[in-house]
C-alpha cells in the first residue's frame, strides 16, 4: 500500500491527539499488529482489544507487543468480531480488512458490529481500498516507478481487481452511514487507498 507507514503514524497521532484521549480501542482484523502497535506506543495508558481470525497473524502481533512492552494492555482474541463480547470501546481502527469482504451484507455487518461496540461519538479510523475511476492506471504507474517489473505490477493489480471486493467511495460512505457512523473527514488518499475518520452516531 502506498504510504502505509505514514497512514499508521497518522492513525496513531489522530487518536492520541483526541480529547479526551481514547482509553479502550477496538482493533478488528489487527493482522500482525501494525496499527495496533503504532497506537499502543502513541497512547501508553490506553487498553486495546485486538481480534483476528488468523492465529498465525495474531501470534506475530502478540510477539511484537511483547517486544515493545504493550502486551499487558492488549486483550487478544482469535476469531471474528461477533464471537467477542459486547463491551463498549471509545475508539476503533479497521485497517485493510473491509475490501476482503464481499458486499453481500458482510461489509455492513462488520461495520455494524464495530458500531455496536462503540460509545456515542467514538471515532472509527477506517483504511480501505476503494474502486478507483482510472482502472488502477495511476497505481500501475507508481508500482513501475518503484522498480517493479511490468509483470509484477500486473500481478498485483490483477489480484486487487479479481480477488478483492472493492466498492466505489460513495458505496463505502453509504455502508458506514447504514452501520451508524457519521463521516467526519478523510485523513489519507493515495490512488484507491483511503483513510476516513468516522464517528459513532
Ligand atoms: C491485510 S491484513 C491487515 C492487517 C492490519 N489491519 C494492517 O492494516 O496491517 C487483513 C486482516 O484481516 C483479517 N480478516 C479476514 N477476514 C476478516 C473478518 N471477517 N473480520 C476481521 N478480520 C478479518 C485477516 O486475517 C488479516 O489479518
UniProtKB/TrEMBL annotation:
One of its GO terms (molecular function) is methyltransferase activity. It holds the Pfam family Methyltransf_25. One of its GO terms (biological process) is methylation. It comes from the Bacteria. InterPro entries: Methyltransf_25, SAM-dependent_MTases_sf. CDD domains: AdoMet_MTases (cd02440). The keyword Transferase applies. Residues 25-120 form the Methyltransferase domain. Keywords: Methyltransferase, Transferase. The keyword Transferase applies. This is Class I SAM-dependent methyltransferase. It comes from Aurantiacibacter xanthus. The lineage of its organism: Bacteria, Pseudomonadati, Pseudomonadota, Alphaproteobacteria, Sphingomonadales.
Amino acid at each position: 500500500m502506498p504510504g502505509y507507514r505514514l497512514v499508521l503514524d497518522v492513525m496513531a497521532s489522530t487518536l492520541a491527539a483526541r480529547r479526551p484521549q481514547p482509553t479502550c480501542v477496538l482493533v478488528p482484523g489487527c493482522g500482525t499488529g501494525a496499527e495496533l502497535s503504532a497506537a499502543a506506543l502513541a497512547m501508553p495508558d490506553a487498553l486495546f482489544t485486538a481480534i483476528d481470525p488468523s492465529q498465525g497473524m495474531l501470534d506475530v502481533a502478540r510477539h511484537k507487543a511483547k517486544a515493545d512492552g504493550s502486551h499487558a494492555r492488549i486483550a487478544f482474541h482469535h476469531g471474528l468480531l461477533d464471537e467477542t463480547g459486547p463491551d463498549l470501546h471509545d475508539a476503533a481502527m479497521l485497517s485493510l480488512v473491509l475490501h476482503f469482504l464481499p458486499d453481500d451484507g458482510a461489509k455492513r455487518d462488520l461495520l455494524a458490529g464495530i458500531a455496536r461496540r462503540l460509545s456515542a461519538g467514538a471515532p472509527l479510523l477506517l483504511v480501505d481500498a476503494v474502486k478507483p475511476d482510472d482502472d488502477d492506471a495511476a497505481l500501475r504507474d507508481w508500482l513501475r516507478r518503484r522498480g517493479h517489473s511490468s509483470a509484477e505490477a500486473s500481478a498485483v493489480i490483477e489480484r486487487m481487481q479479481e480477488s478483492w471486493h472493492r466498492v466505489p467511495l460513495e458505496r463505502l460512505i453509504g455502508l458506514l452511514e447504514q452501520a451508524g457512523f457519521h463521516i467526519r473527514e478523510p485523513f489519507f488518499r493515495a490512488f484507491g487507498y483511503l483513510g476516513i475518520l468516522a464517528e459513532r452516531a
